[in-house]
Design goal:
Oligomer: single chain
CATH superfamily: Vaccinia Virus protein VP39
Bound molecules: S-adenosylmethionine
Structural class: alpha/beta
Largest sheet: 7 strands, mixed
Radius of gyration: 16 Å
Number of helices: 7
CATH architecture: 3-Layer(aba) Sandwich
Order of helices and strands: HHEEHEEHEHHHEE
CATH topology: Rossmann fold
Shape: globular
Distance between the termini: 29 Å
Strand content: 25-35%
Length: 210
């Protein structure tokens, strides 16, 4: 079980990068949260970039962010949000849920947890029947970019970038955890010609069957 997350270099980098996101990514963040209501769990909230985009129908967000430097920034973002948000510094693996959530939000985080299959099974169990997982995650590509991802994952990328793994079949893991994907598509975070291993992104909704 992952007890702590301590990534000073990544925290510094991410706190800068997240203030400079292009509108194309913000648009996807907004879309990922549209129509949510009730109690929401957000996993690995980073600096709280999603917080401004929660609709007023959300009554409470529990945001988990175990990297303490990022959690400090997320708490500031929580104060400025228009819905009530609390930030916990537990890892998702350690977090003890009480009542089931109406929705779980994962954005750019399932690449970074040690055991995505285990975490997705845990998130499934934390949702009420009929509850939704909303995800915005970069995913494994095919063709030449697949090779780039495998090289990145075997070298410095995860060590420098907060345990980010680029060649994960996250949508397969979502299905294997028991979710039913109700709506999903692929998007490019950067233009497809940019040789980055994290460009191809899945955005979707998956339901815990009732
Ligand atoms: C790439 S950042 C994305 C942050 C945010 N979700 C966003 O969309 O901007 C990944 C985040 O996941 C967090 N994280 C990594 N391992 C985690 C774990 N085991 N439990 C919860 N969060 C974790 C990191 O601290 C980091 O803030």
């Amino acid at each position: 079980m992952t007890d702590t997350v301590d990534n000073p270099f990544f925290a510094r980098l991410w706190s800068r990068m997240s203030t400079r996101e292009p509108e194309s990514i913000r648009k996807l963040r907004r879309e990922n949260l549209v129509g949510l209501s009730g109690r929401v769990l957000e996993v690995g909230a980073g600096t709280g970039t999603n917080f401004a985009f929660y609709p007023a129908t959300v009554t409470q967000v529990v945001a988990i962010e175990p990297e303490r430097r990022l959690a400090v920034i997320a708490r500031q973002a929580a104060h400025e949000a228009s819905v009530p948000i609390t930030v916990s510094t537990d890892t998702v693996e350690k977090y003890q849920a009480g009542d089931p959530f109406d929705a779980v939000v994962c954005s750019l985080v399932l690449c970074s947890v040690d055991d995505p299959d285990g975490v997705l099974r845990q998130l499934f169990s934390m949702l009420r029947p009929g509850g939704e997982l909303r995800y915005l995650e970069h995913v494994a590509s095919t063709g030449p970019r697949e090779q780039l991802q495998k090289i990145a994952d075997a070298t410095l990328w995860p060590r420098l970038l907060g345990n980010c793994h680029t060649h994960r079949d996250t949508e397969r893991s979502i299905l294997d955890a028991g979710f039913e994907v109700s709506d999903a598509r692929r998007e490019w975070m950067m233009p497809a010609w940019v040789p980055l291993p994290v460009s191809e992104t899945a955005i979707g909704r998956a339901v815990r069957p009732g």
